[in-house]
Design a protein that fits this description.
It is built from 3 helices and no strands. The longest helix has 24 residues. Helices cover 77% and strands 0% of the residues. The N and C termini lie far apart (35 Å). It has 73 residues and is mainly alpha-helical. The protein has a domain of 47 residues. It is elongated.
């Protein structure tokens, strides 16, 4: 059995950490935080698009990803 991470919990934690890092972190920390946000968002979007339970057009998946990324900034 594969371990499937709870990406909602991961996203919430990364978004919260990103807010603190944006205010207090170094430029490198900010860059790494943005990269992490992007990767979590991409994984969430990938799972939505490839899910057999959800039929989401590609454009809607992209909009969802953009919304997640915007929420983190």
């Amino acid at each position: 059995m594969d371990h499937v991470p709870d990406l909602d919990a991961v996203a919430d934690a990364v978004i919260a950490a990103h807010a603190v890092i944006e205010k207090n972190g170094t430029e490198m920390m900010k860059t790494l935080s943005q990269m992490l946000l992007l990767n979590v968002g991409k994984e969430i979007a990938r799972r939505i698009v490839t899910s057999k339970d959800v039929e989401l057009p590609k454009e809607e998946a992209i909009d969802l990803l953009k919304g997640l990324l915007k929420k983190g900034t």
